[in-house]
Structure formats: C-alpha cells, structure tokens
Amino acid sequence: MADSLPALAFLGAGSMGGAILRGVVASGVAVDGGITATNRSRVSAADLADLPGVTTIALEERPDGNRDALASARIVLVGVKPGMVPDLLREIAPHLAPDAIVVSLAAGVTLATFADALGADVHVIRSMPNTPATVGKAVTGLAAGPASTPDDMALVRRLFETVGAVIEVPESQIDALSTISGSGPAYVFLLIEEWTKVGLGLGFSEADARLMAEQTFIGSTALLEASGETPTEMRRRVTSPKGTTERAIAVLQDAHLEKTFADASAAALARARELAAGA
C-alpha cells in the first residue's frame, strides 16, 4: 500500500473522476483530511454517498460547493467536461490553497488553458487515466506543467499508482497516449463483442459465447502478465506449426490489422487535437 495521501477534492466526479475516486477508495490508502467530491446533480452526488471517507456535494443544492471542497484540499482534480473547464477554473482560482496541486482529468484541455485561468505560478499537472482505474488496473499518463515541481509529480504519481500503472510523458505525448490507453478499453470491449458474435454464429448460447470470449481475453492477459514474456513470444507459443491457430492468425494478418490499428489511432489523435482547438 502507498503512503498516505493529502486531502483530495474531485471537482466533477463523473465517468473518469468517479473511476479514479472509487479506485482510490478501493485501494485502502489513507487520505489525510479525506476526499470531497462535487457533481452538478443530486443523483450524481448520491451515487458516491456510500463510499467511506468521501464527502459528496450536489452543486444544485450547494452552489458554493466547489469552494467548500477546496477548503482543505492539497490535490484538486478537475474532472468536469472539457468545455466546462475554463469557467470552473475561473471560479476556483481565488480559493486555491497556496500549495495546491491542480490535476487535470479533462481530455484535450492543455496546460496553457490552466495557466491562463489560474496563473502561471499555480502547480498544474495534466493526467490521462483510463477507466480500469475502478478496479486498480489503470494506465495513467502524467505531464508536468511549468510550475510543478518534482515533489508535486512524485505525490500525484503516488495518487495514480493506487489505481494502476503510471507513465510520465511530455505534454506533447499526452494525446498520443490517449489513443492507446485512454481509448484502448473500448477497443478491447469491441473485440470481445465481435468474438462473442462469432460464438453465436457457431451455435453457442449467448451466455456461453460471451463467457468464452470474455474469459479468453481475461485469462490471456493474466497469463501474459505472469509470464514476463513479450506478446510476440506468447503468440508464438500458442501457434503450433501447421495447426489451426496458425491458419487463423494468417487470416488476421492478411486483413492488415497493423494498418487498421494505426488508422484508428490516427483518427483518435486527430479528434483529440480538434478538441484541444475547441472544435
């Protein structure tokens, strides 16, 4: 277990913010001063009410809830939708503690946007986590802002390590990272969907087809992790010469999967840049 963390404020604990929050709670790490989370609606706030050590605020009931959440927070995670970020930053700028570290969870919002709203001297770190944080299996990219210190990065790294693995990158690589790990869970789920359809087409029940597809992915990734080998080597071991798997792999390779995956990543990267430009 990691050392204890300082007080946390999640401003916008929806899909991604909520995943990180739940992952931190599930990790069991001590949070000195507790965790405060804000959401616009009562319903969203109520979804977090059962989490131990979490104070949840509905802004429709407490319009100054964001300010209240900042009162004792050392790490402030901004998890509202990208288009809402500038207004939120202007709202909180006068109320940040002098030693606060502001962590962006917002896709496509640059460190420059944060500096413009908060001031160039505020310590800001841009993050790109993914939703497996909920089960402690995230990959999170972290990019340091100009005013953030190595100690800031070490502290925020420790926070995200409670929910998975962390990669430190320059901001110029954050969007590229998002096309792999940020969008990646959806790619995996799509593959499982398609293999489940194959199972149905081969005459299996929906329950059995889904079980085969899901557990094969889960088991294979667990085997890869436990082996310490590369995916290429593990594939070689499963692919017997002149066997059934070799024949199937040949079909997949003939489909030019390398180009398909590259094209998909390029499309996601182009959209990330559009979001950053406000499109």
Short description:
With 279 residues, the chain is an alpha/beta fold. The protein has helices at residues 15-27, 42-46, 65-70, 85-92, 111-118, 150-161, 174-182, 184-201, 206-227, 231-238, 244-254, 257-276; strands spanning 8-11, 35-39, 54-58, 75-78, 101-104, 123-128, 138-144, 164-168.
Description:
With 279 residues, the chain is an alpha/beta fold. It folds into two domains: 8-172, Rossmann fold (3-Layer(aba) Sandwich), CATH 3.40.50; 184-276, Orthogonal Bundle (ProC C-terminal domain-like fold), CATH 1.10.3730.10. 50% of the residues lie in helices and 14% in strands. The protein has twelve helices and eight strands. It has an eight-stranded mixed sheet with strand order 3-2-1-4-5-6-7-8, sandwiched between helices. Helix 4 packs parallel to helix 5 (111-118), helix 7 crosses helix 12 and helix 8 (184-201) packs across helix 9 (206-227). The chain is elongated, with a radius of gyration of 21 Å. The two termini are 42 Å apart. The mean pLDDT is 93.
